[in-house]
Amino acid sequence: MPEPIVRVEDVTVRFGGVVAVDNVSLDVMPGEVVGIIGPNGAGKTTLLDAVCGWAPLTAGRVTLDGADVTGVLPWKRARLGLGRSFQDARLYPTMTVRETLQSAFHARHRNGVVAEGLRLPDAQAEEEEVAAAAISLLELVDLGRYLDHRVAELSFGTTRAVELAWLAARRPKVLLLDEPASGLQQSEVRVLGGLIERIRGDAAVVVIDHDVPFVSGLAPRLVAMDLGRVVADGPSTSVLADPGVIESYLGTGRYSRAAT
Question: Is residue 148 part of a domain?
Answer without folding.
Answer: no
